[in-house]
User: Fold this.
Amino acid sequence: MRSFTTRVYMINDFLEWNNNGLLNLSPDFQRRGVWTTQAKSYLMDTIITGKPIPKILMTQSLREAGEKKIIDGQQRLRTILEYCSDSFTIYKSHNKEFADIFYSDLPEDVKSNILGYEIGVDLLYDLSYEETLDIFARLNTYSVRLNPQELRNAEFSGPFKQSSYQIGYSYVNYFEESGMLTKQKVARMAEAELASDLLVVAVGGIEPKRAIIKYYKRFNDEDVDLNGYVKQVDEALKTITEIYSPHQLKETHYSQIHLFYSLFCAVYHSLFGIKGLDGRRNTDLKKDIGPTKAKLDQFSLLCDREDPEIQDFLDACRRSTTEQSSRKLRAKVLCDIIAD
Assistant:
C-alpha cells in the first residue's frame, strides 16, 4: 500500500514556509549544502526558462505546527531560497538575458513566473526518525553509478560544459541515425561526451580521451569565450553531414565512434588546422565534397578487406583507440587521403 501522496507546490509556497519557520532543510541525516555557485546558477536557469527539475521528497508533521522536513532535494531548495534573497545571480554562460541580475531587479513578470514555478513533491506524513532514515537509505541504494561524463556533468557548469552540450544537442539526431549512438547511450550523456571530445580537438589539439576532464577544469571560468571554437566545430560537423547523410555514414566504418573522431579531425584540420597534427590539408575541401566522399568510401573498403598496406591504421583502430598516438596516426592517414 502506497505510504505517500504526490502534490505540486509553487516556489512561493516554499518561500512562505521558510519565512514562517516551517521548512527544515537540515535534518540530521542530510548532507549540508555543497553546490558551487555555477551549479546553483544552472538550476535557476532551468527554472527561469520553464524546464522541469526533479521532484522533492518531503515529510510533514501534523502535530508540530505543520513542519516540513526535506528528505531529498534540500540543495535544490537552498539554491532557490538563496536566489530569491539576492545571494547570487545567474551566469552568462547559462542565460545571457538574465545574467548578473539579482532576483529583486528582474522584471516583474519574470519574478512572477519564478514564484509560480511548480515543483513536484512526494509527501509523507508523521514519519518516525527510523522510517525517514530507511527511506533516505533506499533512495541512495537505487542510485546508478555515474559514468565519467555524468560525473563531469555533476561537477561542472562552466563554458566548456555548456559549449559541449550545445554541440551535442545540435547533432544528437545525426549521431543516432548514423548508428554511432543508441538512445540508451544518449540517455547516459554519450552525445555530450563525444561533443566534448571534438571540442577538445578545436581548443587544444588531439588528446587522449581521458584529457576531457582537464578541459572541463581549465575552461570552467565564466570569463572564458569558446564561441569561436564552437562555430568551427559546427562547421566541421556540417561539412561531414554534407559528405555523408546519416544513413550513408551508417554503411561505412566511420560510424564507429573512434573512426568518426578521426574523420572529424581530418575534416577540421583541412578547414582550420589542428595544433601538432602532421597531416596534409585540403583547404578546398568544401568545394570537393563528391570527390572526398569517393576517396573516403574507397578507404573504408580497404578497411573491409583488411588490406596489408594500411596495417598501421588497422592496428591503431584495434588497440588503444582513444590514446593520443593512435588518434594522431588515424587522423594523419585520413588527412592525407582527403588531401590526395
